[in-house]
Amino acid sequence: MKKWRFLTATAALTLMLGACGTDESGDKSSGEKTEQTSTDKGAAAESNAAFPMTVKSLSSERETEEGDKITFADVELKEQPKRIISMDYGFLDTLDALGVEGIVGIPYGGGQGNMPEQLKEKYKPSDDLTDVGNLKELDLEAVAAAEPDVIFISGRQAPYYEELKEITPNVVFIGSDSADYIGGVEDSIDLAAKIFDKEDKAKELKATLDEKTKAIQDKAAKYDNALVTMYSDKQISGFDNGDDSRFKYVYDAFGFKPAVEGIDTSAHGSSFSYEAILKADPEVLFVIDRNDMAVDALKKDVENDIIKKTQAYKNGTIVYLDGTNWYFSSNGATTEVEKMDEVLDELK
């Protein structure tokens, strides 16, 4: 028997024994407090009117780094989930922006996780919120102990899909394979809004997202070309608009024209060189800081004698970007807006 099944069964037995030992007088004295008004009952009935609800993952399948193909089954929710685990920081951001309550587990990573600061402070582990590991290494016993009604996962956690389904069948994959990047973000907002009855708020979030997308496309149209790079551990990687490029949306969705194409792609981009950047000579050079360095230290590393010969350096259009949002928390309702604002602010 799996350890997490044993833990869940033990927790359930403890609750049953506690219920048997409840003092009757205590139940009577709290009767007035627990009695629902007719208004409360009506609101509850309306909230659950959409259930049972069939929820489809945003992608039907995903291939792991090892080449294994995982197929995601539809989820049948009997009622609105009250205990939620989000393994994806971007989706946690969306749930938070929608005002969804009931988060009982996140991959906090012992405080070392690359989570946006506003979320990191708000969702600190406590008696009511469990740290379930990090983005790629989950603590399945902690997941089971949190007793979730639903678990939301993305690509980094896909290899755990079958094991998570042993804890709850309600595992939803929220990684989009949509060729329309912004459309994929809006799909994730709509999915969360449908489950948690937040359609009105979702309309506001999508309107803001659409407004920022138009603004960044207008800005991108003013430049001949751009190059997206990522800096990590003294190495720089390049990303073009190829189908497998992690940041192709900067070109396809945001509208920047690629300074170079045909870059070998991988999960972390190609092993690029400063000479290759000079050869491409982009008008705008984006540098995503995966290591969360101080900007001055990052500039000292990147802006060497070779980079100083590029158009981007001469024109003051090297844009340093926050790796937390760009690499670890993409696809969130507010993190995507923050990403676009970052570009707009730097390219005034």
What do these coordinates show?
By secondary structure, the chain is of the alpha/beta class. It has 16 helices and 14 strands. The strands form four sheets. The chain has a five-stranded parallel beta sheet. It has a five-stranded mixed beta sheet with strand order 12-11-10-13-14, sandwiched between helices. Helix 6 (about 115-120) links the parallel strand 6 and strand 7 (about 130).
How is this structure best summarized?
The protein has 348 residues and is of the alpha/beta class.
Layout of strands and helices, then pairs:
Blueprint: H1 3-20, H2 24-29, H3 31-34, H4 38-47, E1 53-55, E2 61-63, E3 69-71, E4 75-77, E5 84-86, H5 89-98, E6 103-106, H6 117-122, E7 130-131, H7 140-145, E8 150-153, H8 161-167, E9 171-173, H9 181-196, H10 199-220, E10 226-232, E11 235-239, H11 249-252, E12 270-271, H12 274-280, E13 284-289, H13 295-302, H14 311-314, E14 318-322, H15 323-328, H16 335-346
Parallel strand pairs: 5-6, 5-8, 6-7, 8-9, 10-13, 13-14
Antiparallel strand pairs: 1-4, 2-3, 10-11, 11-12
